Amino acid sequence: MSLANRMAVANPHVTAIAVEVSEYPDLARKYRVRGVPMTVVDDQVEILGALPEDTFVAQAVQLRTQPSPGA
Amino acid sequence: MSLLSDAELAQVRELLAGMTAPVVLRYYTQTLECDTCADTRRILDLLAGASDRITVEEHNLVLEREAAAAAGVDRAPTIIVLGAGADGALRDDGVRFVGAPLGYEFTALLDAILLVSHGEADLSEASRRLLAAVTSPMTLQVFTTPT
Fold this sequence. Notes:
The complex is a heterodimer. By secondary structure, chain A is of the alpha+beta class. Chain A has helices spanning 3-10, 25-30, 53-65, and strands at 14-20, 38-41, 45-48. Chain A is 38% helix and 21% strand. Chain A has a two-stranded antiparallel sheet. Chain B has helices at residues 6-16, 37-50, 65-70, 104-118, 125-131; strands at 23-29, 54-60, 78-84, 90-98, 138-144. Chain B starts with 5 loop residues before the first helix and ends with a strand. Chain B has five helices and five strands, in the order H-E-H-E-H-E-E-H-H-E. In chain B, 36% of the residues lie in helices and 25% in strands. Chain B is globular and about 45 Å long. Chain B has a four-stranded mixed sheet with strand order 2-1-3-4, with helices on one face. Chain A binds chain B through residues 1-2, 4-24, 27-28, 31, 33, 36-43, 53-54, 57-58, 60-62, 64-65, and chain B through 35-36, 72, 75, 93-102, 105, 108, 111-112, 115-116, 119-124, 126-128, 130-146. Strand 2 (38-41) of chain A pairs antiparallel with strand 5 of chain B, so a sheet runs across the interface.
């Protein structure tokens, strides 16, 4: 079952969008999709591949909340 | 041609029998320049036929662009999986599918229907603690292919 969907159901701030990328080559180019599944968090952070739950959630949340260099 | 064999359809019915509350599939379509909208509608009709707890609500992306934009929808086909309470009120858990739910995505849609129907995510305590730190909008776009 999709981890992103589970995160969305668990937290009202989270939206999970499953994108069938072969239908939308413009999105594949925009986000430089190199393999699937690939998850893009807030248009910024990429998570490539299917990861164990704890690793996926940690990457999605912690990478997103890290301040950008020089900020 | 049927989308599913009789055996596959029986499996889908069996899975959906595990739903605990109704689900509305809000479907955004458009008449022109949408190669997969017709297939998507057939899939949604199949699901609605497989469970009396599933309702399909169709919207036209072009004619209802403002409402679609307010829901963050800018492409067809898009499906928003909504939970429906006993009072008929709809609950948006933030679960969406962009593109036709074929192949792997069909299974993912079935999973999402069950998840939203139950309204409860099976996550570890560690994951829940991490997620509790998310207090502003967060969007996860998961790119997949049908195979």
